[in-house]
Amino acid sequence: MAAAFAGFSPKSTHLHSPISFKGPHSSFPGGSLKSLCSQSKPRNRNSDFINLVVASASSRSSANSSDGGSFYLNFTGFPFPLGPFLNRRTFRTEAVKDCIWLFEQEQALGFSSVSTNNRMTVIKLKSGGLWVHAPIAPTKECVQLVKELGAPVEYIILPTFAYEHKIFVGPFSRKFPRAQIWVAPRQWSWPLNLPLEFFGIFRAKTLKDEDMMTPWADEIEQKVLSSPEVGIGPYVEVAFYHKHSRTLLVTDAVIFVPRQPPDCISKESLLASAKNGLAVKFLSKGKEVPEEPVVDNKMNRQKGWERMVLQILFLGPSNLLEPNATFAQMSQKLIVSPIVKTLVFSKVPEKVRDWIDRITRDWRFKRIIPAHFSAPINASRSDFLAAFAFLDDLLGERYVTRPSLSLLFTSLMGKAASYFPPDDMRTLSSLDEFLVSVGVVKKTVSGRKQ
Asked: Percentage helix, strand, coil, to 5, in the chain?
């Protein structure tokens, strides 16, 4: 999320630089969604047409950081260094009892007041070992929380090319030197395309699409999205499916923005974002911006969070002075981030559609864990498809090849999930048009999986 510009995707590799959907049953090629929906509770008559609720995770933990356990020095990242530069507290939650744990740290964009959460997911395999997805900074606190699980780390997974995840793989692997490292294919960095060894990643194996020969293949399956180059490099993301818990793991494919800020984001960051600084004055729709001190209270922390979210999603939202209206439209629903949609997925709709279709056809997931914002999210395949409804408009399909009443309903859901306020999209759309006009980004890149 922090590295939005390089590669002109929301995730890029720089040189050191649960939701509940209650609706009708759905059918897909290769299987029925009926069983996924059979446990849905009756709809509250007063609820919204689409009722989205983030699943609560149990056993929230944070190791004692008073002894410097959260210290981590990092000033790398080009052109924007990734903060916090000295201190990263780690929060652990149990997403699936005795099976899946989430570890989160704050991640900031350079010297700005914009932060989000960065998530590592740990799955306990039948062997008794741990499978680690998208490592975070291996602070003393983080390592202690991993070791408290009482199992050896066997595999460390880099599911993307993105710098904000790649940077921690090497340091994390040195804390668990017996673990195997597996990385997404077609790794690259910018402005210099450096080998993985430069990032401290040695003897890494490459993740392959639908590879049934991985040591974890009986428990976790994988599908690779590997696009043609859309800017200065290709977009690569590997999705995983943990069969026992019916959990889908993604990096940036979808997000669910919570109403409240994640615990890992500090009050100092939230209050800094609530301050009426230069960005607010520039993005205030011409309204007078008051000069007033920021008092530490619930209202200001919430305002800071809403401003952070809108800048992460839109780069230049229309109104940072009063962010609550747009924030309400963008939160509490499963979506593709506007930046990912505009600068990446809209360029390679056929590739993305093939990837999404294979995921929904083969995997009967009931929850999703992304690398940012809320997780775990209780969501079915129809919810996931709805978030990508914009692909059908781009490809001119409109479900013609997959007709059913339930998919028509999913299409209507998709209209809601894909709607982004035009005023807030203006900066992002203008940036996209400019990049296309100067040839830095291609308008579309065709090519389905053969």
From this structure: 30, 20, 50
